Amino acid sequence: MSEVMTGERPAAASGQDSSSKTFPRLLTERAAERPKDVALQEKLYGIWQPISWQEYAARVRDFGHGLASLGVTRGAIIAVLGDNRPEWLIAEVAAQSIGAAVVGIYPTSLDEEIIHILSVSKAKVVVAEDQEQVDKLIRVKPMVPHLESVIFYDPHGLETYTEPWLMEFSSVETRGREWAEGRPGWFEEEVAKGDPDDVAVVCTTSGTTSRPKLGQLTHRNLLSMADNLTSIDPLGPKDRFVSFLPLAWIGEQMIAVACGLSRGMTLSFPEDASTQRSDLREIGPHVMFSPPRIWESMLSEVQVRIDEAGWLKRKVFGLGYDIGDRVAERRVRGQRIGVGSRVMQKLADWVALRPVRDQLGLTRIRRCYTGGAPLGPDVFRFFHAIGVNLKQIYGQTEICGIAVVHHDDDVRFHTVGVPIPQTELKISDDGEILLRSPSVFVGYVGNEAATTEAIDADGWLHTGDAGYLDEGHLVVIDRAKDVLTSADGTRFSSAFIENKLKFSPYVEEAVVFGTDEITAMITIDAMTVGSWAENEHLTYTTYTDLAQKKEVYELLTDEVHRANADLPDSIKVRRFLLLFKQLDPDDDEITRTRKVRRNVIAERYADLIEALERADDSVSITNTVTYQDGTSVKRTIVLRIRDLDGYEPPKHKNVRPVWSGRR
Amino acid sequence: MYGQPIATCVLGHIRHPEEVPRLLTRAYRFPLNSSRVPVGEPLLEVRDVSLRFGGITALSEVSFTVVQGHVHAVIGPNGAGKSSLLNCASGLYRPQAGQILLHSRDEHGAASTHDLAKLKPHRIARLGVARSFQNIELFSHLTLLENLMLGRHVHMRHGLLPSMVWFGPARNQEVRHREFVEEVIDLLQLQAFRNHHVGSLAYGIQKRVELGRALCVEPALLLLDEPMAGMNAEEKEDMARYILDVHELRGVSVMLIEHDMGVVMDISNRVSVLDFGRLIGDGTPDEVRANEAVVEAYLGAD
To answer: N or C: which end of chain A has fewer CB within 10 A?
Structure first.
């Protein structure tokens, strides 16, 4: 085995020590320290409706009593199924206060996934958002016999439901207050009984290959992670965070709940999915953690909007961007920036970069993180150039979401950074990344076999990822089982090439196949390609029609050619086709966190993949379209296959800058 | 109960959270339906209405009844007289013959009846008959919020002076109306467009704003003139969903006009069919579908 790398705790940042506490105790502390400050706020009816720490604690207390009155006991698990709302967190901390844990279910989950999570966790109580989620639970209830009560917090449309086991959130709070009357001091005792080693949160692992496993994280796991992360990247009570990614995801739990409660940040919940971006801009958060798709979509948005701007604005932004880019390149390497560059940078920031940050809602941002999947180096570069300190996080649900991160003055775009304090890292002999820290989880619910597979006798977490160390930074190749070797011995993974392709603003998803000759199946991004087509005066009707336009193929050929430029010869993309539809989680082609399910794709599109392999000119596929009136037709679509052999991009074209979709 | 925060924000300074009543339930506070007529009883009776423009007969002796608690669709091919009928009910046209009776109850349950065919449009609006227009009739340079606030106009009662200086009861009243409007925005999921100028919104959204403004009148009866005209299949389904929400969640009786039979048949309790100004069918969607005269009017006689 190779050497062990340990993340050092920086001497200066001693930080607070929360790892000997629990979430409910932290909430009690916050409510005592700053009773009137805003803990949570939700935009509702057009207004940010604040909840102070004191109110938060009071509602947690009421709801905790309510849960106890419904028979939730120490050691049990309750489930929450809904979008991010204050009630989600109130339910979470209330359950933890009485010694129970919470498992989040993604609001987009289908019945089968809900049944799986509820049966494994044996949840008696589910807190659901609205009619949509309650309807799902009514359907699955017969399959999960131990489910006793469902508590909803958005009553619209539920007035006429008569199921006796349905309750409104506020009525459970009222019930809790009544239940508490004869039991003074009970709640405080329960909170005091809480041990840091109790399970606090159960997070589902994203199951690209199998059903999700339920990883149990203790208070100590999560809070030591929060301590270690904030010792590098401090967070404080004045900081704001917008919570819009599912709280069922470890990344959101990690910042919103663990760092939020231990550092006393204010969390804001957007009004509606459609207003997320404008609400984000109103709040102007100080910290963000999002998967790559959010950053990618922000970049596409900038690209689309800059391409709609006049020539002068494009010119000014182009100049400003170049200055920002040069300065950022020195900054991320920890190099000194000269006085001249500083002045130019200020100027560029003022005329070109700050307005773009403002449009994205990132003016206040000090640090933001990406994680969950690799992000293209060019996207990284773009954000650093416009003055956003974007850093990579590497970690699994099993280690509270983070083990490795970039340091502020040492951001290398192709690596994931160095271990956070108290975290040990080593690469096993067969190239697997192993991690050990106080944040390593305590096991999967009801799955001993998987637990012993994940944690070995010495406490090392086997991540299942292949990687190597590059001058002290960790580089992740891919899942160990997905690492392939090309004909000339280059170690690579499909995702590595896919990410190169996906960096193009026109590519939404890409799936590559083969080891000797790489081929790719690409889905175009409807928004950017649509706006490009509009600009080119190209008429089209549907997504399918757009994807099969000759001009669109030409456009994408050029993009694939660009991506190939960064790849060694043996793994360049030889052929590709554009798929007639987008990959959809409802069709099981992609997970809720937007990871492609290769096995499903390989099975469903076997014909296409074979045709790509055989180097056919085209391939036809039949699919069934169901119309509104219930009739359906089978239609045959002919998909062309483009071979890049001998392709030379037209000479006269200029190179497309990162921030533009136009040439 | 949780009206206070809106007031605080309108005034521009945020009060301390402790003073703001806590938002405990997400249920709506305002009823949208202002009619007290019990469900199942007649709400609007169209009796032998005839309307002529010079020598052209737009409507001849049309009679049917809209029952409280129903979505009642009036369908027919182009030029059948559907919009004319709606214009008679909202006072824009005056029929030469017949009555359009709106039944209502006061707070003590005492019944009264008004003949809409003889009233001026603003009087009809006061009685709680709200409508949307086929061709969007919004103030395109005002924001969505302002357009909906205008829908509350019939309920605003205060003098000119207090309104101008925005003082005392006038201010409180405006805050209360804003709360009402916000519930409509929430119901129709228009949050993302609250401060957009209506003219800049997509057609399908503008149609939803039309519906929203009619709801802000707090209708006793909601008249919708081709709410799905010019929409694509997806927008139509969305609109159908919103109409059902308005009806099922908020108990508003709806009379809607549509020439596309498809969606309407799915969401209506009762359907009346007009052709060349005559009523040729009246019944449940299934009855109407089986009616030969209706099929002929729609598909043409072979």
So the answer is: N
